Amino acid sequence: MEIKNTISRPDGEPLKVIYNETDPLADMEGKIFQGIHAFVFCDGKMVLVNHPRGGWMPPGGGREGEETIEEVVIREVQEETNMKVLYQEVIGFQDIYERDPITRQTRNFCIVEPYGEFTADPDGEIMEI
């Protein structure tokens, strides 16, 4: 399935976005893997984080160095929720046609369990889950 959409940057410039459910590592020419958003479930409930710039949303973030998709998911989920990823699966990705290069972000499904109580993420942005 492919979904095409246009969103607006904060400055009003339109951006083409294409969501796809094929292999996110295929057809990477001219694109960079930028980051992830994880649809996280714990004890049958979806876990969301309260981000100061975006409100309630799935945990996620950018790739650091040469991390794999799986490594980014594990790190971001742990940082933003203090939870351990028990199972994960890529469910899709979106290509964002900014100026250059095209950025790719994956969407992932995860089952998790808490490491312990959540206090805040290391960046100090997420204060509530």
Report on the architecture of this protein:
By secondary structure, the chain is mainly β. The protein contains one helix and nine strands. Strands 1, 2, 3, 4, 7, 8 and 9 form a seven-stranded mixed β-sheet that branches. The chain has a two-stranded antiparallel sheet with strand order 5-6. Strand 3 and strand 4 (45-47) form a beta hairpin. The N and C termini lie far apart (31 Å). 22% of the residues are buried. The model has no long low-confidence stretch (mean pLDDT 92).
Largest sheet: 7 strands, mixed
Spatial separation of the terminal alpha carbons: 31 Å
Radius of gyration: 15 Å
Shape: globular
Number of discrete helical segments: 1
- Uncertain parts: none
H-E order: EEEEEEEHEE
Strand content: over 45%
Attribute tags:
51% strand, 10% helix, 129 residues, single chain, 9 strands, 1 helix, mainly beta, two-stranded antiparallel sheet
Question: Which helices and strands, and how do they pair?
Answer:
Elements (H helix, E strand, L loop, with lengths): L1 E7 L5 E7 L10 E12 L2 E3 L1 E3 L3 E3 L2 E3 L6 H13 L1 E15 L4 E13 L15
Parallel strand pairs: 3-9
Antiparallel strand pairs: 1-2, 2-8, 3-4, 3-7, 5-6, 8-9
